[in-house]
Inverse folding.
Protein backbone atom coordinates (compact mmCIF):
# COMPACT_ATOMS: atom_id res chain seq x y z
CA UNK A 1 0.00 0.00 0.00
CA UNK A 2 1.90 3.03 -1.28
CA UNK A 3 -0.77 5.66 -1.73
CA UNK A 4 -2.01 8.15 0.81
CA UNK A 5 -5.30 10.00 1.13
CA UNK A 6 -5.49 13.33 2.95
CA UNK A 7 -8.60 15.05 4.27
CA UNK A 8 -9.05 18.14 6.46
CA UNK A 9 -11.68 18.09 9.17
CA UNK A 10 -12.88 20.05 12.20
CA UNK A 11 -14.30 18.90 15.52
CA UNK A 12 -17.08 20.74 17.39
CA UNK A 13 -14.65 22.32 19.89
CA UNK A 14 -11.47 22.57 17.82
CA UNK A 15 -10.74 23.17 14.15
CA UNK A 16 -7.86 22.41 11.83
CA UNK A 17 -7.03 18.72 11.73
CA UNK A 18 -5.59 16.71 8.86
CA UNK A 19 -6.37 13.02 8.51
CA UNK A 20 -4.05 10.84 6.40
CA UNK A 21 -4.75 7.22 5.58
CA UNK A 22 -2.34 4.89 3.82
CA UNK A 23 0.52 2.47 4.23
CA UNK A 24 3.51 2.17 6.51
CA UNK A 25 6.04 3.51 4.00
CA UNK A 26 4.38 6.92 4.06
CA UNK A 27 2.80 7.06 7.52
CA UNK A 28 4.90 4.67 9.62
CA UNK A 29 7.30 7.19 11.11
CA UNK A 30 4.48 9.48 12.25
CA UNK A 31 2.31 6.59 13.51
CA UNK A 32 5.26 5.27 15.46
CA UNK A 33 6.00 8.63 17.07
CA UNK A 34 2.45 8.70 18.52
CA UNK A 35 2.48 5.01 19.50
CA UNK A 36 5.85 5.31 21.25
CA UNK A 37 4.63 8.31 23.20
CA UNK A 38 1.33 6.68 24.24
CA UNK A 39 2.04 2.95 24.51
CA UNK A 40 5.75 2.78 25.35
CA UNK A 41 6.31 5.97 27.38
CA UNK A 42 2.87 6.36 28.99
CA UNK A 43 1.63 2.78 29.31
CA UNK A 44 5.03 1.01 29.60
CA UNK A 45 4.34 -1.43 26.78
CA UNK A 46 7.66 -3.10 25.85
CA UNK A 47 8.92 -1.49 22.60
CA UNK A 48 9.68 -4.90 21.09
CA UNK A 49 5.97 -5.87 21.06
CA UNK A 50 4.64 -2.43 20.13
CA UNK A 51 5.58 -2.86 16.45
CA UNK A 52 4.78 -6.09 14.57
CA UNK A 53 4.78 -7.68 11.12
CA UNK A 54 1.24 -6.49 10.34
CA UNK A 55 2.40 -2.86 10.31
CA UNK A 56 4.07 -3.06 6.89
CA UNK A 57 1.01 -4.52 5.14
CA UNK A 58 -2.02 -2.97 6.86
CA UNK A 59 -3.80 0.37 6.51
CA UNK A 60 -2.89 3.16 8.92
CA UNK A 61 -4.45 6.45 9.87
CA UNK A 62 -2.56 9.41 11.31
CA UNK A 63 -4.19 12.64 12.44
CA UNK A 64 -2.17 15.86 12.41
CA UNK A 65 -2.85 19.08 14.22
CA UNK A 66 -2.25 21.96 11.81
CA UNK A 67 -1.65 24.43 14.62
CA UNK A 68 -1.11 28.10 13.79
CA UNK A 69 1.69 28.37 11.28
CA UNK A 70 3.59 25.40 12.70
CA UNK A 71 4.68 22.23 10.96
CA UNK A 72 1.81 19.72 11.40
CA UNK A 73 2.29 17.45 14.40
CA UNK A 74 1.12 13.82 14.42
CA UNK A 75 -1.25 13.55 17.39
CA UNK A 76 -3.32 10.39 16.86
CA UNK A 77 -3.14 7.10 15.03
CA UNK A 78 -4.71 3.68 14.49
CA UNK A 79 -4.64 0.78 12.06
CA UNK A 80 -6.83 -1.89 10.52
CA UNK A 81 -5.53 -5.36 9.69
CA UNK A 82 -7.59 -7.61 7.42
CA UNK A 83 -7.50 -11.26 8.47
CA UNK A 84 -9.08 -14.33 6.82
CA UNK A 85 -10.87 -15.29 10.01
CA UNK A 86 -11.40 -13.82 13.46
CA UNK A 87 -10.85 -14.94 17.04
CA UNK A 88 -14.60 -15.25 17.63
CA UNK A 89 -16.18 -14.47 14.26
CA UNK A 90 -15.98 -16.81 11.29
CA UNK A 91 -14.99 -15.44 7.90
CA UNK A 92 -12.85 -12.38 7.12
CA UNK A 93 -12.51 -9.73 9.80
CA UNK A 94 -11.10 -6.23 9.98
CA UNK A 95 -9.06 -6.02 13.18
CA UNK A 96 -8.80 -2.49 14.52
CA UNK A 97 -5.82 -1.74 16.72
CA UNK A 98 -3.07 0.56 17.99
CA UNK A 99 -5.66 3.30 18.59
CA UNK A 100 -3.81 6.12 20.30
CA UNK A 101 -4.31 9.84 20.90
CA UNK A 102 -1.59 11.92 22.55
CA UNK A 103 -2.65 12.79 26.09
CA UNK A 104 -3.02 16.54 25.50
CA UNK A 105 -5.54 15.92 22.70
CA UNK A 106 -7.86 13.38 24.37
CA UNK A 107 -11.54 13.85 25.08
CA UNK A 108 -12.34 16.10 22.11
CA UNK A 109 -13.49 13.39 19.72
CA UNK A 110 -10.30 12.26 17.97
CA UNK A 111 -10.68 8.64 19.15
CA UNK A 112 -14.21 8.65 17.79
CA UNK A 113 -12.94 10.13 14.52
CA UNK A 114 -10.20 7.47 14.20
CA UNK A 115 -12.71 4.69 14.73
CA UNK A 116 -15.23 6.17 12.29
CA UNK A 117 -12.63 6.42 9.52
CA UNK A 118 -11.15 2.96 10.12
CA UNK A 119 -14.61 1.36 9.99
CA UNK A 120 -15.52 3.33 6.84
CA UNK A 121 -12.28 2.32 5.12
CA UNK A 122 -12.81 -1.36 5.93
CA UNK A 123 -16.46 -1.23 4.85
CA UNK A 124 -15.44 0.38 1.54
CA UNK A 125 -13.37 -2.78 0.93
CA UNK A 126 -16.45 -4.94 1.50
CA UNK A 127 -15.67 -5.94 5.11
CA UNK A 128 -18.54 -5.94 7.59
CA UNK A 129 -17.08 -7.89 10.50
CA UNK A 130 -14.77 -6.26 13.02
CA UNK A 131 -12.79 -7.37 16.04
CA UNK A 132 -10.55 -5.55 18.48
CA UNK A 133 -8.93 -5.92 21.88
CA UNK A 134 -10.32 -3.16 24.08
CA UNK A 135 -8.88 -2.01 27.35
CA UNK A 136 -11.65 -2.83 29.79
CA UNK A 137 -11.92 0.85 30.78
CA UNK A 138 -12.29 1.95 27.14
CA UNK A 139 -15.21 -0.41 26.34
CA UNK A 140 -17.88 2.36 26.29
CA UNK A 141 -16.12 4.00 23.33
CA UNK A 142 -16.46 0.85 21.23
CA UNK A 143 -19.93 -0.02 22.49
CA UNK A 144 -21.14 3.24 20.95
CA UNK A 145 -20.08 1.83 17.57
CA UNK A 146 -21.99 -1.42 18.11
CA UNK A 147 -19.08 -3.53 19.40
CA UNK A 148 -20.07 -6.24 21.89
CA UNK A 149 -17.78 -7.94 24.44
CA UNK A 150 -16.92 -11.57 23.68
CA UNK A 151 -15.45 -13.88 26.32
CA UNK A 152 -13.65 -13.10 29.56
CA UNK A 153 -11.16 -10.31 30.20
CA UNK A 154 -7.46 -11.17 29.76
CA UNK A 155 -4.11 -9.54 30.36
CA UNK A 156 -2.43 -7.79 27.45
CA UNK A 157 0.79 -5.89 28.04
CA UNK A 158 -0.04 -5.71 31.75
CA UNK A 159 -3.56 -4.24 31.38
CA UNK A 160 -6.98 -5.96 31.44
CA UNK A 161 -8.41 -6.22 27.93
CA UNK A 162 -11.46 -7.85 26.38
CA UNK A 163 -12.22 -9.09 22.87
CA UNK A 164 -14.97 -6.99 21.26
CA UNK A 165 -16.78 -7.90 18.06
CA UNK A 166 -19.00 -6.04 15.63
CA UNK A 167 -20.78 -7.97 12.91
CA UNK A 168 -23.58 -7.00 10.55
CA UNK A 169 -25.89 -8.70 13.05
CA UNK A 170 -24.63 -6.74 16.11
CA UNK A 171 -25.34 -3.39 14.42
CA UNK A 172 -28.92 -4.29 13.34
C1 LIG B 1 -8.78 5.35 23.81
C2 LIG B 1 -8.41 6.70 23.18
C3 LIG B 1 -7.83 6.44 21.79
C4 LIG B 1 -9.70 7.53 23.03
O1 LIG B 1 -9.35 8.75 22.39
P1 LIG B 1 -10.13 10.13 22.69
O2 LIG B 1 -9.67 11.08 21.65
O3 LIG B 1 -9.97 10.54 24.08
O4 LIG B 1 -11.63 9.67 22.41
P2 LIG B 1 -12.90 10.63 22.30
O5 LIG B 1 -12.55 12.03 22.64
O6 LIG B 1 -13.51 10.37 20.98
O7 LIG B 1 -13.80 10.06 23.48
C5 LIG B 1 -14.48 8.86 23.36
C6 LIG B 1 -15.17 8.46 24.66
O8 LIG B 1 -14.51 7.33 25.20
C7 LIG B 1 -14.18 7.57 26.56
N1 LIG B 1 -12.91 6.89 26.85
C8 LIG B 1 -11.93 6.63 26.02
N2 LIG B 1 -10.92 5.99 26.65
C9 LIG B 1 -11.30 5.85 27.91
C10 LIG B 1 -10.72 5.29 29.04
N3 LIG B 1 -9.49 4.74 29.00
N4 LIG B 1 -11.40 5.30 30.20
C11 LIG B 1 -12.62 5.86 30.25
N5 LIG B 1 -13.23 6.43 29.21
C12 LIG B 1 -12.58 6.41 28.04
C13 LIG B 1 -14.06 9.06 26.65
O9 LIG B 1 -14.24 9.48 27.97
C14 LIG B 1 -15.17 9.53 25.74
O10 LIG B 1 -16.42 9.50 26.36
P3 LIG B 1 -17.25 10.84 26.61
O11 LIG B 1 -17.48 11.45 25.25
O12 LIG B 1 -18.51 10.36 27.26
O13 LIG B 1 -16.40 11.67 27.49
C15 LIG B 1 -7.43 7.51 24.07
O14 LIG B 1 -7.98 7.61 25.36
C16 LIG B 1 -6.04 6.91 24.17
O15 LIG B 1 -5.19 7.15 23.32
N6 LIG B 1 -5.80 6.14 25.22
C17 LIG B 1 -4.49 5.58 25.44
C18 LIG B 1 -4.17 4.53 24.42
C19 LIG B 1 -5.00 3.30 24.58
O16 LIG B 1 -5.15 2.79 25.66
N7 LIG B 1 -5.48 2.80 23.42
C20 LIG B 1 -6.18 1.57 23.35
C21 LIG B 1 -7.59 1.67 23.84
S1 LIG B 1 -8.36 0.08 23.69
Amino acid sequence: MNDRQDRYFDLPDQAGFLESTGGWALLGADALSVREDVFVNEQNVPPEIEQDDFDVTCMHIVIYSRGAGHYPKAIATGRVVVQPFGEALTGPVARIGRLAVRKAFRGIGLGTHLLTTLIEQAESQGLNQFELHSRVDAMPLYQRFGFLPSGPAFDEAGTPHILMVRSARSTD
Q: What stands out?
A: Residues 4-127 form a domain with the Aminopeptidase fold (CATH 3.40.630.30). The mean pLDDT is 93. The helical segments are 24-42, 47-50, 110-124, 139-143. The radius of gyration is 16 Å.
